[in-house]
Amino acid sequence: xxTNASSRKLLTLETLGISAAHIxxxxxxxxxxxxxxxxxxLLVLITIAVCKKLHTPMFILLFNLPISDMxxxxxxxxxxxxxxxxxxxxxxxxACITQAFLVHVYGTxxxxxxxxxxxxxxxxxxxxxxxxxIMNPHTxxxxxxxxxxxxxxxxxxxFMLHARFKICRTNIVDLYCNNPxxxxxxxxxxxxxxxxxxxxxxxxxxxxxSIIVYTYAQILRTCVMTNQPDARRKAIQTCGxxxxxxxxxxxxxxxxxxxHRIESVSPNSRRLLGASVLIFPPFLDPIxxxxxxxxxxxxxxxxxxxxxxxxxxxxx
Length: 316
Fold this sequence. Notes:
- The chain is an all-alpha fold.
- It is 78% helix and 2% strand.
- The chain has a two-stranded antiparallel ribbon with strand order 1-2.
């Protein structure tokens, strides 16, 4: 944990550059975006929870994604909105460590969840006769436990390595706290952290990417060979949705990590890329899944109609 001296320090996040005339519009815009993210993700969560026909491995794995997305958005938006109102970019060192920890838990969680979902679709499409045997409740529990255990273990070690350092700077070079920006506060050798961080990037970016490439190549091969157009269309639609969501997160994350390691990248580009990781996936994921997966779209529509009609009946 941070030293007592560190814990008393106030750090300064990068300025938002919002003029006095734009504070109110920025506050309203940020609040609306956050509320939309929470509403859409909660809608997906609740729909999966209450609709029994969605209690299948695919949707149970998907259930974890809105949880992770809401975590990422909640770590970022409330503090950002508070900063807009107060015009203060100060944050305590413990709060900064907490924010950075949860930001990385969110990013890692999304990558692992999407990898597990790709594996589920691979079994469903390439080995349909063995699907219920392989993706049984016991296996499903082990997959979900592994996702969060691996996630929390890797990120906990990453931030335990920060405990060795005394900080000699107070300016965070990003709009929010994260591992690279925290390392830049240290006045000691950060080689161990950098090597571990690089190993995490290789494992957490390369691992999911390898799983996605392999499973989707096999799925594509199976879809091409199948003589059932409806099954092929449904498989491509579902897998296309997963692939779009994965690419949004992967491209955002990779570009952000590269921007932190290349000094020639402009600070504004680095900040925008960093913020995009916490804005676009949580905002787009529930919309993409809600619109593109037929079973989920129908269940959401039915759930909303049922609740709207019951609330109208109660008023009468």
